[in-house]
UniProtKB/TrEMBL annotation:
Residues 56-134, 136-218, 231-286 form the RRM domain. It comes from the Eukaryota. It is found in: Cytoplasm. GO terms for cellular component: cytoplasm. Residues 33-55 are annotated as: Disordered. One of its GO terms (molecular function) is RNA binding. Keywords: Cytoplasm, Repeat, RNA-binding. This is RRM domain-containing protein. Residues 42-53 have a biased composition (Pro residues). NCBIfam families: hnRNP-R-Q. Gene3D superfamilies: 3.30.70.330.
Length: 286
């Protein structure tokens, strides 16, 4: 039954529905409600190829509970093309105070984030906008230390969908063995979330072993200006017996200092160009 009660922007329920219909008619996007959220777009009309790159999604919080896509979308469109809006919904038909907006690329998302954070979307109501943590990586512990990366990748692809990559670190004491855990990268946050649910302890054994599964810490996005000043290289997979002097000699005289910790080290250079040259020359060298 349609409600005629007025919302915070002065529109009745029937008027809000009409406003949503007008938005869909204007843009050609679909509006679909599923699993406690309402999706606008994703993909938009005419979209071909994979979804936008990681970093293209922003979190929009502090939404008035009676604000919907017809109000939010026009504000977001000012800063770039929208791939998708996911608005979290309550059973009573109101939003839950936040939404996720994905743009065509991360530059548009970055601009929208800066412009919309603390934006007064209604009288006295300021938005809280930040980068979305689109985590696609799981930590999987309890893996037999004798298993190779290729074996772990094959096994994870058997029991879960959407696996892209497996990251395995060798043991500091014996490089032929792993450390008993791996990081598994999926093609989407949804795929990672489904895999995490499926792999919860007690549900699946890998090679007859119980496993521990949790979200991996998401990688921190570093802006290009900051990266342009970095003059330190991280070097891993070193032998325990390898000394700082040996590492410094292996690189070159442009090294300022070396700090080694167990089987990894940080190599400081005087110039960023020297660090990049050393990385290109020595990355993957045995």
């Amino acid at each position: 039954m349609e409600s005629n009660q007025k919302s915070g922007d002065g529109l009745t329920g029937m008027q809000k529905e009409a406003a949503l219909r007008a938005l869909i008619q204007r843009t050609g996007y679909q509006l679909l409600q599923e699993n406690g959220q309402r999706r606008y777009g994703g993909p938009p009309p005419g979209w071909e190829g994979p979804p936008p790159e990681r970093g293209s999604e922003i979190f929009v919080g502090k939404l008035p509970r009676d604000l919907f896509e017809d109000e939010l979308v026009p504000h977001c469109e000012k800063f770039g093309k929208i791939f998708e809006v996911r608005m979290m919904m309550d059973f009573n038909g109101n939003n839950r105070g936040y939404a996720f907006v994905t743009f065509y690329n991360k530059n548009e998302a970055k601009t929208a984030m800066k412009q919309l954070n603390n934006y007064e979307i209604r009288n006295g109501r300021l938005l809280g906008v930040c980068a979305s943590v689109d985590n696609c990586r799981l930590f999987v512990g309890g893996i037999p230390k004798s298993k190779k990366r290729e074996e772990i990748l094959m096994e994870m692809k058997k029991v879960t969908d959407g696996v892209l990559e497996v990251i395995v670190y060798p043991s500091a004491a014996d490089k032929t063995k792993n450390r008993g855990f791996a990081f598994v990268e999926y093609d989407s946050h949804r795929a990672a979330a489904m895999a995490r649910r499926k792999l919860l302890p007690g549900r699946i054994l890998l090679w007859g072993h119980a496993i521990a599964v949790d979200w991996a810490e998401p990688e921190v996005e570093v802006d290009e200006d900051t990266m342009a000043t970095v003059k330190i290289l991280y070097v891993r997979n070193l032998m325990l017996a390898t000394t700082e002097e040996t590492i410094e000699k292996e690189f070159n005289s442009a090294v300022e200092r070396v700090k080694k910790i167990r089987d990894y080290a940080f190599v400081h250079f005087t110039q960023r160009e020297d660090a990049i040259s050393a990385m290109d020359a020595l990355n993957g060298k045995v």
